[in-house]
Structure formats: C-alpha cells, structure tokens
Write a structure and sequence with these properties.
The complex is a heterodimer of chains A (551) and B (111).
Chain A: H1 3-18, H2 24-28, E1 49-50, E2 64-70, E3 82-84, E4 87-91, E5 95-100, E6 106-111, E7 132-134, E8 137-141, E9 146-151, E10 157-162, E11 177-179, E12 182-186, E13 197-201, E14 208-213, E15 244-246, E16 251-255, E17 276-280, E18 287-292, E19 308-312, E20 315-321, E21 326-331, E22 337-342, E23 350-353, E24 360-362, H3 364-371, E25 375-377, E26 391-393, E27 398-404, E28 407-412, E29 426-431, E30 438-443, E31 450-456, E32 465-467, E33 471-475, E34 480-485, E35 491-496, E36 506-510, E37 513-519, H4 524-529, E38 543-548
Chain B: H1 2-15, H2 22-35, H3 37-40, H4 62-71, H5 85-96
The chains are: A mainly beta (551), B mainly alpha (111).
C-alpha cells in the first residue's frame, strides 16, 4: 500500500468522528499520521521529527519551491503552520489564514484587530507563533492578551475572551495547546513587571477554567522563596512558549521565564516558580512537580524553551536546551534530574548542576551579578539558545539546536517601575565574539557532546526540523532555507527566500509527495536588540513557502 | 589641504551650538532605553529593517519627531498618554545628538 493509500485508509477509518474536524485521538496520533500536522511542534512531544523520507540525503539537492504566499506583513514571522485535509493554517500578529496546501491559494483570511498602542508591551518582536485545533475550531492568542476561537472552515470568530489588561505589560505571542479537552495558554511580559501565569479555557464556550500563577501570593506554596513585601506582584515568570503534553501520564509540561526585575538582589530567595519546568494537570492547572533551572535569576535565563518528550534509556524523559547554557534531561514522571550538561562553549554562571540535588553550583560571576558588580557573563540574556525550537531524532537520539555564542556586560541597578514599559533593573550591553555568533549543533542530550556543528557569523534564530530522510532543516537570518545531513552536518541544499528566516519548518505529505513548509520574514528579538547592522541588506516581509521535489 | 580642514573644524566648533546638557542627555538615554529600545535598538543601533533607524532622523524636524512619538506613526504606537513632557524633551535631545555623539544642532535646543 502506498503512503497515500494508508493515509486514505486511516482517514476512512477515522471518518465517522472526523467529519467535523480532528478529534482528541487524532491530536494524540499526530506524529504517526504524516498526511497532516495538527499540533504545534509536530506532535504533543514537540520532537519536530517526521519519518517521511522521500526528501532525503540523496534527493534534497533537487528541492524546489512549489508555492509562496504573502503574509502581507513586515514584522518578524515565527508562526508554525498546521495542515489538515489539504488545508494549511497560519498566523501573523494581525491575521489568521487558511490556504489550499497544494497550491497556496487563499481560502479565507480573518484579521485580528488590537489597539494601536499594544506593541508598547511586546519586548522582543510583534510575533505570533501559531494555532491549536480541535473539533473544527482553531484557537489563537492576540498581542493584546485575548484568546480567540475561529471556525476552521470559514475563519469566523466563535468566541473571544480577554485574559487581562495588556496596558500593564501583559501580551500573548504563544500558540495555544489543546490537552485533555482544554485550551491552554501562557502569558508574556517578563520585562514589564508582570506576574506570570498559565491558564485554560473551555474550547466550546471560551469559559476560563483555571489560572495557575507562576509566582505564588503570600501564604501559597512557594511563597517562602520570596521576600516579605510586594516583590511577588511584579515577580515575572512569564510562560510564552507552548508546553508539551503526555496523554498517558495526562500531564502538561510548561516552562516559565525570568524573574523580574532582573535585579535579583531585590528579591532574595529562589523565587519559585520563575525559571522553572512545571508539570501540570491539564484539567485543574495543579502543579504536580516543578524543577527550577536558575534560582534567584539575575540573567534573564528563561526556562520557557520547549520541553521535548522522548524515551531515553528506558525512562520517560523531557529535555530542554535552556537559555542558561545547560541541556537538561528530566524524568518526566518524577521531575528528577537525569542529566544536565553545557551545550555552548562558555557558561560563566555555574560550574555544573548537581545531579543529586538538582541545584546549580554557581560561580562568583553569579554572585557579582546579584550584588551589583559590573560583570561579564556568557551566555547573554539571548541565552545559549533563544526561543527557536530544537528538533529531536529518536532514531539517532540526537537533538538539533540553533545555539547562540554571545556574552553580556551587566550591572544590576535600581529599577524604575511604570506600568506598561520596561522594568529591567540592570544596565547592559552585548559582548560579541570574533567570528561566529551562533552554531547549528547536533547534540547528544545525555552528554551534551556536540557531534557536528555549522557556525554562522549572523546567528540562526529559526527552528529546526529532523526527518527520516536523514535531514535537518533550518533557516538563516540572511534569508536561506537550508537542509543538512543530520548524521554529518554537511549542507546539502539552500534556497534564498528573500527575507530572514526565523520561522519553524514542518513537513507533511499528500498524494505520495512530501512537502516542507516554513514562514520567512526577518525581524524579532535578535534583529531588534542586537544592533547587528549586517542585517540591513536583508529586508523585512514575510511569506509562507512550500517546497518539494520536482514532479 | 590639511591646514584648511583643521581650520574648518575649528570654525565649526566656534560657531556650533552648545553641547547637550549632560544630565538631560543621561535622562534621555534612560528614557530611550525604557520606552524605545525594544523596537529601535539598544543605543539606537538597528539594521533599519524591522523599525526605523533613529540615527537617520532629520535633525531639523523636531516638530515631526514630537508628533510621531506622541501620536504614533505607521507601525509605531502612540506614547502621548504615558510619556511625560519633560521625558519627550530629553528624548529629543538624545536622538538629535545621536546619543550625545554630536552637538545640538542650531534651533534644536529645548533646554
């Protein structure tokens, strides 16, 4: 039976329940149904791995564009496209679109309006990272902190809920997660004096079901890790990247961001649950366990980065390439640390992570950062890896990571709070290396060992995608969409898309042909904050691109 | 040739308006960081692709600068409701002197 026939048989088998849209069961099986991509990160575990192998190390050099679709927007583009029944769905900060996946022809476009002053509260780019779907509905967030449900067939709005007043520094860029029948989102605003939270909505009615704050109020569990006073009210802990979900354990894994303000001397204590990995009950939001990566964080070392689920050495684990330069592997049933190794060349804040206690062995640099000394530390607030998602090849047991090689000059100072503007409490500038500011790396999750790397002077900020064809796809801020041999790191193909690529590649098949899709459109955190003037020659302007082998 | 260039530089210095007041410039820098840096770049360094490169702002267009900041322009949000008038003044000094690298152009002083 051909792959197309298998897909068809699967479709027919599921037909009775899937007429009105994909079911919870289909979402769980997303990774094995290669004809569709129904979940952010290509499966609840966000491995961003597809077994598809028509495009492989032999054929990748023949890749060619099939179509491109203008996103009609000059902001940075980071949206993860979904595909179902031959329809592709994608977002920008200002619209949601449905296209014919074979031709790129628009089926509908639904605009997202928000007040003109909203971009004040977006620290790191006016972006949106995509959609979740369930039972014929699409779910997305808006920059002005709303959650919206749309009819997948027409693009019409079904419900729209305000999460919080954006004017006090709160925003959404996250793609929602549908888990155990609820729609889960996490707030942004770690640099604006917010109190972070993760919350859930009823997919049918939009009713808010729960909200779990990542910073406890006085008297709540974890509040003993905060000083007396009101620091907790602006304590940070945003949750701006999509969590993963293990249906068997019925547990959602969600990372939280930096404590605020950056000046850590003002909030003595570990500051739970900032810079933490949280295991949550999707129905109640209850925290089952937590693991904190950077206690009393002065560095902006978010632990928001994706928590990829895998089986390693007989254990159910999750893994994360953390901003703080360590690659963590945790047992996801217990939250116990399995491994934590440096995955970038220079990590100044900690010597190691104690595998017994799970605590970092911190350095004098970390102490100085907290006590107001002028310090230099690597990696910078950009992190050893920023938001750009990793992929994980379960056959090779290898992770593919766009790492950053940037340091920071830093001094904690008295912060000035005003609602809706930056609340840093630190003076800082970048410390640049000679040469490569980033490396695409193949990393062994358990040892941190780098199998191969491909450096670039302007670092890559795109996601990666691994495939059964022995490939890793990613993109460059100089516009190239690229394919590498995942065993050797040899670059096999690249195509100039005409604007920086900082999006998330994904792959799918239809009628026996494999496609790879990604949005391009330069901008966002590095372009806005680095001052890297070499990017002046790479204009903004996003498109959704789809590639395949020639017919 | 060399002498005449030196002469020109001297002449320029003699006729140039005053340097920006240091306190105003420092306040301008911190105001810029808090309100503007997330789009226009740290120290105004910016490739100019996603947002306007403020180092290119015409130094004789003060009114337009105030108008853009207060009311917004294109993709830029309006700041008039939360930016205090004296903050706008020091912001202008920061921008028009290219972060203190150049003297205040004639007629640009808000002192």
């Amino acid at each position: 039976m051909t792959k197309a026939a298998i897909s068809l048989a699967l479709l027919l088998a599921l037909g009775a329940t899937s007429v009105h849209g994909q079911t919870a069961e289909e979402l769980i099986n997303d990774t094995s149904t290669t004809g569709d991509v129904l979940t952010y990160g290509m499966g609840y575990g966000q491995q961003r791995y597809s077994p598809l192998d028509q495009i492989n190390t032999e054929t990748a050099s023949q890749l060619t564009p099939v179509w491109a679709y203008s996103l009609d927007d000059s902001r940075g583009q980071e949206s993860f496209p979904l595909v179902r029944d031959g329809v592709m769905y994608v977002t920008t900060h200002k619209a949601t679109m449905a296209l014919d996946a074979m031709t790129g022809k628009q089926i509908w476009k639904s605009s997202v309006d928000y007040p003109a002053e909203t971009p004040r509260v977006a620290c790191c780019g006016i972006v949106n990272r995509g959609l979740a779907m369930l039972d014929g509905k699409l779910f997305r967030t808006t920059l002005d902190a709303h959650v919206i449900a749309l009819d997948a067939e027409t693009g019409e709005e079904i419900w729209r809920k305000k999460s919080i007043d954006f004017k006090t520094g709160y925003s959404f860029t996250v793609a929602p997660l549908v888990a155990d029948g609820v729609v889960i989102v996490g707030i942004s605003g770690g640099e604006y004096g917010v109190r972070g939270y993760i919350e859930a909505y009823d997919p049918e009615s939009g009713e808010q079901l729960w909200r779990t704050y990542t910073v406890p109020a006085p008297g709540e569990p974890g509040s003993e890790t905060w000083p007396e006073g009101d620091a907790w009210e602006r304590g940070g802990g945003p949750a701006w990247l999509t969590g993963t979900y293990d249906p068997d354990l019925n547990t959602v894994y969600w990372g939280t961001g930096n404590a605020g303000p950056w000046n850590a001397g003002l909030r003595p204590g570990d500051n739970l649950y900032t810079t933490s990995i949280l295991a949550l009950d999707p129905k109640t939001g209850e925290i089952k366990w937590h693991y904190q990566t950077t206690p009393n964080d002065p560095f902006d070392y978010d632990a928001t980065n994706e928590l990829v689920l895998a089986d390693l050495e007989g254990q159910k684990v999750l893994m994360q390439a953390n901003r703080n330069g360590f690659f963590y592997v945790l047992n996801r049933e217990t939250g116990k640390l399995v491994a934590a190794n440096k995955f970038v060349d220079r990590v100044d804040w900690a010597e190691s992570i104690d595998l017994e206690t799970g605590k970092p062995n911190q350095t004098e640099v970390a102490e100085g950062a907290r006590t107001g000394d002028q310090v230099e530390f690597w990696p910078s607030a950009f992190g050893g890896k920023n938001w750009s998602p990793i992929s994980y090849d379960p056959e090779q047991q290898m992770a593919f990571v766009n790492t950053l090689n940037v340091g920071m000059n830093y001094k904690a100072v008295e912060p000035q709070y005003r609602a809706g503007v930056f609340y840093f409490g630190a003076e800082f500038s970048w410390s640049w290396p000679d040469g490569n500011r980033g490396f695409l790396r193949a990393i062994d999750p358990l040892t941190g060992e780098v199998k191969w790397e491909d450096g670039s002077e302007i670092p890559r900020l795109a996601g990666t995608l691994a495939t059964g064809g022995g490939l890793v796809f990613t993109g460059a801020q100089t516009g190239e969409f690229e394919a590498f041999n995942s065993e050797t790191g040899e670059k096999l193909w690249s195509f100039n898309t005409g604007s920086g690529v900082i999006g998330q590649p994904m792959t799918w098949e239809m009628d026996g042909r494999q496609y790879v899709s990604i949005v391009n459109g330069g901008g966002a955190v590095y372009a806005l904050f680095s001052g890297d003037e070499r990017l002046a020659g790479y204009p903004a302007g996003g498109n959704l691109w789809t590639f395949a082998l020639p017919n | 040739m060399r002498i005449s260039i030196i002469g020109l530089v001297l002449l320029a210095h003699l006729t140039a308006p005053a340097q920006a007041d240091e306190a105003a410039l420092a306040k301008g820098a911190s105001t810029y960081k808090q309100f503007c840096s997330h789009c226009h770049g740290i120290d105004m360094k910016n490739p100019g692709t996603s947002s306007y490169d403020l180092r290119k702002w015409p130094q004789d267009r003060k009114d337009e600068f105030y108008n853009s900041v207060q009311n917004g322009k294109g993709d830029m949000p309006a700041w008039g409701d939360i930016l205090l008038p004296d903050e706008l003044d020091v912001l202008w000094i920061y921008v028009v002197t290219r972060g203190g690298k150049e003297p205040l152009p004639e007629g640009a002083d808000n002192g």
